[in-house]
Structures are given as C-alpha cells and as structure tokens.
Amino acid sequence: MSSPIPAVIAVVVHEGHTLLVRRANPPDAGLWGFPGGKIEFGETVKAAALRELLEETGVAAEAQDVITTLDILVQDPTGATRQHYILIAVLCRWISGDPVAADDALDARWFAIAELDPESIAMSADVDVIARRAQALASN
Questions:
Q1: Which residue in 65, 78, 80, 135 has the most C-beta neighbors within 10 A?
Q2: Phi and psi at residue 15, in whole multiples of 5°?
Q3: Is 13 within 8 Å of 111 (Cβ atoms)?
Q4: What is the Cα–Cα distance from 19 to 70, expressed in whole angstroms?
Q5: CB-based burial of residue 43 (10 Å sphere; 0-12 exposed, 13-18 middle, 19+ buried)?
Q6: Looking at 2-6, 26-30, 51-55, 100-104, which range is the least confident one?
Q7: Overall number of domains in the chain
Q8: Tens of pLDDT, residues 12-69
Q9: CATH number for the domain harbouring residue 55
Q10: For residues 6, 37, 39 and 45, what is the CA-based torsion angle, rounded to 10 degrees?
Q11: Residue 79 is part of which domain span?
C-alpha cells in the first residue's frame, strides 16, 4: 500500500470567470478541471499551484488562500483503491497571460462561473462548487 499523493489545483478567478483545462491524462482525462498537479519535494503549496498554472496554461497569477482539500480515490476494475490523491485548492489572482494549453492540458480557457453546470460541461467533481466558493472569497 502506498501513501496518498499531495497535489494542488490553481483556482483562478478573474472578472466573473475561472480558468479551466481539459485534462489529457488520468485521473479525469478528457474532463474540464482546474490546472494542477503533484507537489514537488521542497515546494510549498502556493509555489506548486503557481508552477502548475504557468506550465499548463502560460497564465501568471498570485497565490492567495487555500480554499479546500479534496480526496481523489482512483480505483482498479475490482474496486480496490489504486491511487489516492489529496488535492489542495489554492485561490489565485490573475496577473497576466492568455490561456494556451500546454504540458498535460488538451485545451485551456475561461468559463463564466455563473454558467458552470456539470449537466452541460464534462468536468471533474466539484469544479462548479469550488469555483463559486473561490469567487465568494475573492470578492471579500
């Protein structure tokens, strides 16, 4: 049995929109979600969020606060847990850059937070909930 893998997601809120990428690799390949990835040894949570954001989208931001954490359990065909990711969602304030998909992102673009709906957009779990929470935090 291996240990959980710490990772970050960068939740960028800008003018009523949030930046999402369409994931190229598992987990959640093909789904829209926040830019993010594994935290490297010796890297802070905020630094990891900003690095992943820049690598996947070319967007620069300022990391602000941790919004929430998520447990992502990847199961094998028998239902046994194969991988366990702990995602740390970091609120980020956009500084510069237009999103361009890079690294392990198939696409990158801004979505209106008010229009995020898991029934009409194939997205990772709780993207709409986290984006709305980030928008509320950013406006305070």
A1: 135
A2: 50, 45
A3: no
A4: 19
A5: middle
A6: 26-30
A7: 1
A8: 999 999 999 999 987 788 999 999 999 999 999 999 999 999 999 999 999 999 999 9
A9: 3.90.79.10
A10: -90
A11: 5-138
